[in-house]
Automatic annotation (TrEMBL):
<keyword id="KW-0804">Transcription</keyword>
<dbReference type="InterPro" id="IPR002577">
    <property type="entry name" value="HTH_HxlR"/>
</dbReference>
<protein>
    <submittedName>
        <fullName>HxlR family transcriptional regulator</fullName>
    </submittedName>
</protein>
<dbReference type="Pfam" id="PF01638">
    <property type="entry name" value="HxlR"/>
</dbReference>
<dbReference type="InterPro" id="IPR036390">
    <property type="entry name" value="WH_DNA-bd_sf"/>
</dbReference>
<keyword id="KW-0238">DNA-binding</keyword>
<dbReference type="InterPro" id="IPR036388">
    <property type="entry name" value="WH-like_DNA-bd_sf"/>
</dbReference>
<keyword id="KW-0805">Transcription regulation</keyword>
<feature type="domain" description="HTH hxlR-type">
    <location>
        <begin position="8"/>
        <end position="104"/>
    </location>
</feature>
<dbReference type="GO" id="GO:0003677">
    <property type="term" value="F:DNA binding"/>
</dbReference>
Length: 104
């Protein structure tokens, strides 16, 4: 990831959380932990590869947990970390802005 050269906190937030899918993934995981295919069904326009990349990124950044259960077949579940849960208010604001944009 590129360094935030300007030191702007908005730029930092957009670097980490920007993009088409990251906040959408987080918004679904706020509701409850989900498995990979549940997320795929919830976000039909995301490719399997992109979902994998975004989940890895969010895990590396410390926003989500990936828990593997020793079952056959293997079960993998994604949930928010404490840092991820702190984004709840941001998700609420994005929902409000999205609703406003639809009607304006």
């Amino acid at each position: 990831m590129k360094d935030n050269i300007s030191g702007c906190s908005v730029e930092e937030a957009m670097t980490v959380l920007g993009g088409r899918w990251r906040m959408l993934i987080i918004s679904f995981l706020i509701e409850r932990p989900m498995r990979f295919n549940e997320l795929r069904r919830a976000i039909p326009n995301i490719s399997q590869r992109m979902l994998t990349l975004e989940l890895r990124f969010l895990e590396e950044e410390g926003f989500i947990n990936r828990e593997v259960f020793a079952e056959v077949p293997v079960k993998v579940e994604y949930s928010l970390t404490e840092d991820g849960k702190k984004l709840n208010s941001l998700v609420d604001v994005l929902k409000e802005v999205g609703s406003w944009l639809k009607i304006r």
